[in-house]
Amino acid sequence: MTDFTANQAVARKPDFSDAHLRKRYRAEARFRMYGIAAIFAALAMLAVLLGSIVTTGVSAFTQTEIALDVTLDSSQIDPAAIAKGNYRKIVRDAIRAQFPDVSGRRDLRNLYKIVSSGADFTLRRMVEADPSLIGTTRTVWFKSSADIDQLNKGAIPRDVPEADRRVNDDQIAWFDALSGDDRTRRSFNTTFFTSGDSREPEQAGVWGAVVGTALTLLVTLVLSFPVGVMAAVYLEEFAPKNRWTDLIEVNINNLAAVPSIVFGLLGLAVFLNFFGMPRSAPVVGGMVLALMTLPTVIIAGRAALQSVPPSIREAALGVGASPLQTVSHHVLPLAMPGILTGTIIGMARALGETAPLLMIGMVAFIVDIPRGFTDAATVLPVQVFLWADAPERAFVERTSAAIMVLLAFLIVMNLAAVLLRRKFERRW
pLDDT tens across 90-120, in order? Predict the structure, then answer.
């Protein structure tokens, strides 16, 4: 009987032959290959996306300029009222002096369009900075119009019919004549980084949006971080485990998945309509984004607190520390790197949000640079949205350039998070 049972067991033993092992190894090799292929596919798509953005937006960092011999006649500029000078006529006279044969209202209007409409403001700022220029003739480099700039960059083709492009044949001939006299150049576009939004592409910049973004995120961080950390500490360390805390935890998890536009509607109804706070202000935008970021900070904070070994708490309590001292002196410092990671994830999400800010009016056309938390402002995602919807061809490259600035802003935030994490990180 014993021999029969042993023989039966041997007969039922699985067959681990070489063929079976080779089949399993091939399956593992295929799985590894699929994983590597998925990673390379993701990297390839990311490279295509970033490559498209960079190749489209890098040209926005340069701007075509035209040199004109400007006569700052004292009859057009009163030294006692420099700001009221007729700078537009001075610029137009300088353009006509380059092409004295051009006549007729229509031809002159087309001639004036080769220079930016903001050339008179450029000239006024120059004279205000140095009033001794009045009565002299100087060669001044002015920004060209957006269409001439796109022509010089090759975005507007020359070999298509005149009716199919925004620059006519006469304007191309005038620009070529200026280029032949070495009166054109491409220089670094400082205006893009130092000015606010504008209806004219060559005068538009992202500095107003950058300042508005920084102010809005500062309000978001100041409100969401301490409140989120305190809520996480209370729920994880001090709150009793009952159905009320369970209900709170479920609601926090649900709020983390709520669409962002719902928070925008909440901000519109409460902060603007009920409390009457200023529309399109960083303080309101920061409060709305803080509400949206708060659940993420709480969830990440609780996870970081749970990762601290119980032995840390037991050791602190064993030497006589109170529960509050245990949390504040031992548990919270060890959990701080994880809390900072969750906070930066929430802030990164807030940085890219557009929908809630549109609901509170931050989609408004803002030219001035905000100087405080209650001034009208816009943010980088909304600026990208506005420029992407603009009809001018020059705004296409500025949209991609603004995305590059937004990505750089995000990289700086992540770098700051990594540095803070390393500073507070402790090993046990």
Answer: 999 999 999 999 888 999 999 999 999 889 9
